[in-house]
Amino acid sequence: MLWLKCGMGLxxxxxxxxxxxxxxxxxxxxxxxxxRTKNIQYAGSLAYHRRMGCPPQPTPPRLSDISSSENQTLLxxxxxxxxxxxxxxxxxxxNASFPSTQNPPGPTEKEHxxxxxxxxxxxxxxxxxxxxxxxxxxxxxxxPYAILLQFAAPGIALGSxxxxxxxxxxxxRFRRTAAxxxxxxxxxxxxxxxxxxxxxxxxxxxxxxxxxxNDPLLQKWxxxxxxxxxxxxxxxxxxxxxxxxxxxxxxxxxxxxxxxTALDMPAEMWPASLDEFEAYFDEQIRTLEITExxxxxxxxxxxxxxxxxxxxxxxxxxxxxxxxxxxxxxxxAYGLSSPDRWFVWMGYTAIVWLIWTANWVMPERLKxxxxxxxxxxxxxxxxxxxIQGRWMx
Length: 393
Fold this sequence. Notes:
Blueprint: H1 2-12, H2 14-26, H3 35-52, H4 69-79, E1 89-92, E2 96-99, H5 109-113, H6 126-135, H7 143-150, H8 154-163, H9 170-186, H10 189-203, E3 207-208, E4 211-212, H11 216-237, H12 246-256, H13 258-261, H14 274-287, H15 292-304, H16 313-325, H17 328-333, H18 342-361, H19 364-388
Antiparallel strand pairs: 1-2, 3-4
């Protein structure tokens, strides 16, 4: 605090003394205060410095010590601090004066290339963004959106209809998917190996005439839909109201490739840039064949899941959200209402507002507790697989 006190003393004491001395030397007048008055005033500033703990200031010069203009100049240059330079003004029409306008130094090249929200300027790496995305509870709301995109791939739709239990036991199916995602993001190497190994083993039995669950192309499409859902949820329900920047999306896209490579997709198959990913994603949406199996699987998800009675309202909410979020081609194929209809848009607006508000008012401690519980579930699933050799959830 000593330097702050000294600064306050200099700001209040020294300029006042300098002003008195300079004024009397350069423009003496009969009304100027006497030497006794100036000495009293300067003594007051010295007392202020001593009270604030600052070092003593030099005594002001006396008028009797100055006999000529040369001595005045010498005395001022040696004993008085240099006065600040006067602001330069330039005259403009209209008898008005403004400070001279000089172009301020422009931003450096780094400031041009890295905006303020860039992950590396805010201290967040792409991996930090992935951890935040998985820790944000609203990200999991994008699960049905990602699944309906996946059903557009005939192989995933056939495998889900013939081998998955998501109709009869959707909660258990969600827990397994959550365990896989958390193992890839937060799990140890042993936990990740156990859970991913169990999934690969189970996928080896899911095959048909034209598909196999371990197909790298299907793994790539699954990871792509997870990324699309995470970005959509982050931009829709962000408490700050700020969408992810292009650079943040680029880093997050690279990280989501881990969900495909964890199931043995070659790393070089994942898009190398966000532009490449968007071209791939748009091509898939435009060309994937929506088969009868796709429509059947989507109908089960949207209308036929065996949920507890107190969660049945979630099916209505899901249909409203998917009617707005899904691409037009998939929305029509899955039999959802047009988002242009007034009741769909009003329902969507109300649902989004309620979810955003709940996410905003939810205590951070509660979010942390839910995340910790999900991680413990993942660790328990990995331990069960290690001991029993299969899923126990």
